Amino acid sequence: GLIFGVVVLVTGPLWAKAAWGVWWKWEPRLTTMAILFMIFSGYRLLRAFGGDGPGVRVFAAVLAVFGAPQIYFVHIAVSRWQGDHPNNVVMEPEMRVALYSNLGLMMIVFFLLLRLRYRVRRDALTVSALKRRLARMGAG
Predict the structure, then answer these.
(1) Which residues contact 8 (CB under 8 A, 6 or more apart)?
(2) Are 71 and 44 in contact (CB under 8 A)?
(3) Over pLDDT 90: what percentage of the chain?
(4) What is the Cα Rg of the chain in Å?
(5) Who has greater pLDDT, 115 or 6?
(6) What pLDDT is attached to residue 127?
(7) pLDDT in tens, 77-126
(8) Are 13 and 24 in contact (CB under 8 A)?
């Protein structure tokens, strides 16, 4: 999710400069996406570098619970709030094919990365268990 957020927040201002003549407009769609990105960036940074104490876990959980509804606000901002973005875009059949092809490919990439992450975690747990077992054998 953070990667897509980076893509949105980097390419959006590039498009905005060309379309509106400014790098950033404080319209609901952009602002809610930026807030969502900051909340979950903070969550990921906290989980990665905050340590493993109970306070860190609780604060990360609170941040995640606070951030989760923001996903809905982004959806509402896109579908209902008026802004400078065009609404009701009609897609040509060729565009629809391109959109769904890319969506399918991104889903495949997501599941491949998810599978890789699962394997890495499983292997790390196996190595950890083997180290504990070797330590017990050496101590006994």
Answers:
(1) 33, 37
(2) no
(3) 27
(4) 21
(5) 115
(6) 96
(7) 777 776 666 666 677 888 889 989 999 999 999 999 999 999 999 999 99
(8) yes
Q: Which three-class secondary structure state does DSSP give residue 140?
A: coil
Residues 39, 5: Cα–Cα separation, whole Å: 11
pLDDT recorded at residue 26: 83
Predicted model pTM = 0.58
* Residue 25: partners with Cβ closer than 8 Å, 6 or more residues away: 16, 84
3-state secondary structure of 92: coil
| Residue owning tokens 């699962």 | 118
